[in-house]
Amino acid sequence: MAKLPVEKMRELERRFGEIEARMSAGPAADVYVKLASEYSELEPVVKKIRDYEKAVSEAADLEALLADKSTDKDMRDLAEMELPDVEVRIGELEKDMQVLLLPKDAADEKSAILEIRAGTGGSEAALFAGDLFRMYERFASTKGWKVEVLSASEGEAGGYKEIIATISGRGVFSKLKFESGVHRVQRVPETEASGRIHTSAATVAVLPEAEDIDIEIRPEDIRIDTMRASGAGGQHVNTTDSAVRITHLPTGLIVTSSEKSQHQNRAKAMQVLRSRLYDIERQKVDSERSADRKSQVGSGDRSERIRTYNFPQGRVTDHRINLTLYKLDRMIEGEIDELVDALIADYQAGQLAQLGEQL
Description:
One of its GO terms (molecular function) is translation release factor activity, codon specific. This protein is an alpha+beta fold. The protein has 8 helices and 11 strands. It is 47% helix and 20% strand.
């Protein structure tokens, strides 16, 4: 087992005490909000550190009793009985601490932008893209996160050719970042008279929502075009030039938004553009950092087939960690915690293995 970084633990405890003191001194509201955010991040880590230190101290006291020849028999028997339990507790706390003290992804606490695009499979792929969006929407609601659709292009038979939404809340990206990739579905379409199973796919991209501080977009690097909104219905279409298309000239990225308000469209399109540029920067740093070694689930390759949803067999298989769950009906309703947690655990195990190699 990798050795715990004692110096880092001491520094976290010191910082936690400093934050507590500053919060109790009654700082300005904006400062208090920042301190409270850092406090809530550090609190579970520091609690675990203190539990660990208490257990280590307890073990030392019991070992001292056993080493002392003057300890009477009853006390010695009690110490011999209690010491193994304390040692087990120390081992469990060490494992928990190693995970808590792993290097943090700076984007983990951010909200996210979810992009789903229908792939091969025509109308069936668009329906599947709709199923995936509802799955993430329901999962988000169980976490108390807010979902807002930024743009959507509906399929002819339902579902979506493409849908982009923000999922706002604390730690959204940390939970959903391993959902990026190609999702494949196998099922019998309602229009299939012969009962033949069709295979279709949709691509999911989860981007950390970027703020101005994360990425700077220079005015001279973008071109903004307005155009007439297009869509079904007709009564509001072609009445105003409300749709906005932003082109980022250095990268060639194009983002569009076509709601009724031109002002809102510009803000939403900039929000997506900023997050895509931030994601490109992150991908570049990640690929440089892990050129010699790729995590099984953390490669970020959007063209990789990551998961299969087989409706006739009621199963979902994640190919990166070889996990198959026979509860597709519940998962498509948003109950994906087990899968999300397994992906995070696998990633953390890879990080711990890397850390062990470095020590």
